[in-house]
Amino acid sequence: EPYEGKLSRTVLRGERGSNVPDLPDFLSQKYRPENRDGDQSFLSRSFERHFNERPYLEHACYLFLTKTTKERISQQSNFTTLCRGFIIPKEIRDPEAISRFLDAVGQAESIIRESGLIGIRRLTTEEILGDEKTPGILNQYFTLNFEHSVNEDIKLDPGRMMIGDKILCMHTLTDLDDLPQQVGTDTRYERLSTDRSDCRLSFAAPVGLLLGCDHVYNQFIFLENHEEILERFERMGRNMNSLSQYSRSNAVNKEWIDLYLSEAHVGNLRSVRCHCNVMTWAENEDDLKRIRNDVGAQLALLGCTPHHNTVDVPALFWGAIPGNEADFPAEESFYTFLEPALCFFTAETNYRSSPSPFGIKMVDRHTGIPIHLDISDLPMKRGIIQNRNKCIVGPSGSGKSFITNHLVRQYWEQGAHIVLVDTGNSYKGLCELVNQKTHGKDGIYFTYTDENPICFNPFYTDDGIFDIEKRESIKTLILTLWKRENEPPTRAEEVALSNAVNLYLAELRKDSELIPSFNTFYEFVGSDYRRLLRQKNVREKDFDVDGFLNVLEPYYKGGEYDYLLNSDKQLDLLSKRLVIFELDNIKDHKILFPIVTLIIMETFINKMRRLQGVRKVILIEEAWKAIAKEGMAEYLKYLCAPVQAA
Q1: What are 221-251's pLDDT values in tens digits?
Q2: Are residue 546 and residue 637 in the same domain, yes or no?
Q3: In terms of domains, do 310 and 434 share one?
Q4: How does DSSP assign 206-225, residue by residue?
């Protein structure tokens, strides 16, 4: 839950309990592109090559739960295992105590995992100790080499600690006087925020990924006996009260202690000890100075006074060894409550690629590193969305067509069938690229010009199959040409038109020499179907054949629009994975726009019904122009239903 509160202003040494340190490390890496020989297109290869060796910080986070003893948790830096001949206290050697501790760790692990907010898993022996090829976490920590298994000398000089050639630099948060008066779980990140939206990051984000150098951020929380701590505060408060007449500072300390105890009892808050430090390193003095300034500046963003620690670096380094947190010097910590202590935990990591094989390549907005993002399947699987519909909104010049070109190309490369309604020739280059890649087998671009007008053949299919969807689309097309929008057909006319289409399609199956086109359909209605209607004594008022042929005559050969439905390009759009309709020149045409709209509807519905198990995408550019037409608006409403969109 979001938290915002004050820190305690009292410092005491602890007793018994356990340590809960969190150790995130942030290491400089360079992006390595995906190399799939022969499997990537030119644009995909160029995309990966563009980001080759781009630097970024790689983040890993470890949580160590350490069991210790009452005496060990309160020891200072002069009593660590660096100064002793034995390491393990006899209390820890009790098998029953170890078993209880492991059970508690298992329960904590289950609670964190089942929350669904954080992923967590136990480290394996190989990950801790390493092997011949990969260093374990212990080797990485002792050598500050996170890629290769090497041995480094550790050098302890007055005021300086070195591991190999690396000079350590440690900034610590150990004194409440150096901390801000108030902390919270999150803060506003101005760089990615606007007047209308907030980008919220954790309170400690400035010392996480926002600190652009190799570093380890150690966070410690010491869980001790809460009741004993409050009793100590009570005794100290009484002592301060009795000594207040000798020093004004004792009276002030008494007020702080009373305030701390009141907040603990009223809010039922748990007392803990906390410590945080940022450990960085460099191989020369110039880099060390720059890094020291960067860390100090980032700590200042937290409202903290930067404290560059030089004396206690060996003890702090030793106490932060994975599994050795019991050796942490008690004098380097401060007392506060659990809630504000947790505010010093970093909550961000790098953007992670989606595990789904389907998706698009985007870029981390902080580091500029490519990531694989699934915005369709994975959100559906997790219940975040109920359909895969997408709406891209932005002012002119904001990059809507740019991101859509990027999305369409990658969807096409992953096998999706795409029907795109364009206004403005934004996708002509993409279509030409696909057409060249497939040697003319895909990438169909329909646009209207006087030299090359839009033309189709609604009666042609590559496999000769006319299912119910195909037949209905033909009937709707002819009905649109025949009747006006405000002139609904009678029931007799609907039946007659349906019979004409079905009989013509049956004739196509019987006569292999009959060329499917609107011309032959027109001739079939004027000859064979006219005789059939006379044999059935169909009255003229029920179906006027001559009136029907007269209205459709402009689309027959020799008519004004004879090119429209008689294309000699026997093109079956069902098998084409990228079909683009450019409607800018005909969006206001009373004849062409409704016909092209119907062709688009028929094309996509045909893909939806017949291409089972294949991803289909219909994309409407400048959608407000399309939905302004009643027929197209109803069609889009039908497509956007959750069941259909899935």
Answers
A1: 998 888 888 898 888 888 888 887 777 888 8
A2: no
A3: no
A4: GGTTTS-S-EEEEEEEEEE-
